[in-house]
Amino acid sequence: PPPLPPPSAMLTSRGPALCTALRRAAPGGLASFHSSSRRCRAARVAVVLSGCGVYDGTEIHEASAVLVHLSRGGAEVQMYAPDVPQMHVIDHSKGQPAEAESRNVLVESARIARGKIASLAKLTTADHDAVIFPGGFGAAKNLSTFAVDGKDCKVNREVERVLKDFHKAGKPIGLCCISPVLAAKVLSGAEVTVGHEEEEGGKWPYAGTAGAIKELGAKHCVKEVTISFPAHVDTKNKVVTTPAFMCETALHHIFDGIGAMVKNVLKLTGK
């Protein structure tokens, strides 16, 4: 048989019909078949911190896990924190309040963000496709008063605004550890998990949080922290939660569970 003509000649010889079909398959033109520059852009994710340190701010391992998994997922990340005083300062070597100290949530959060952080007042849904809240007692002390007031807690007004704005815009919200209480308080009828509802001999030391979540009007879903069942996805409200350090378990289980949360948040962005 005669040799095939070059591809350019084939396109020409077969007329405009084939060219049209190829362009329909590649809306960006024929070059888009080979150009990575025409791929969908990365998801833009805001991460909201609450200080630096498990007992009075953001749980550092959780924040790090969130950032690693977002990086692996190709997301563009901007970190935020409210520019307010911490509820109090904890000496983490003793687990006791440091009575003479006071610290700022934004300033302390900048330690985790390596200085690249903005005031939470500047966070808008227009600039981001999703928002994630790591855990740590800062979520219950600095982002809300849950640690003191339980079901009668108040949520920082900027945190409340961000949660409501992302929910209204249909953009996903990820939360881990204790931070799902924020969604439970602000988003009526949301489904979240903080793990199990019984302490089970100390494996779930904060199991009582599940009861408070129900009292806030949210639905609590029992979940494991391990990779098999690590996250709950409320598809209606686009809220994704995982227990993380609500469970006494190995660090790699926490890391994997947070990875599942991040993966589902990114999936919900559609990017």
From TrEMBL:
This is GAL3A protein. Its main location: mitochondrion. One of its GO terms (cellular component) is mitochondrion. Keywords: Mitochondrion, Transit peptide. The keyword Methyltransferase does not apply. It comes from the Eukaryota. The keyword tRNA processing does not apply. InterPro entries: Class_I_gatase-like. SUPFAM superfamilies: Class I glutamine amidotransferase-like (SSF52317). It is found in: Mitochondrion.
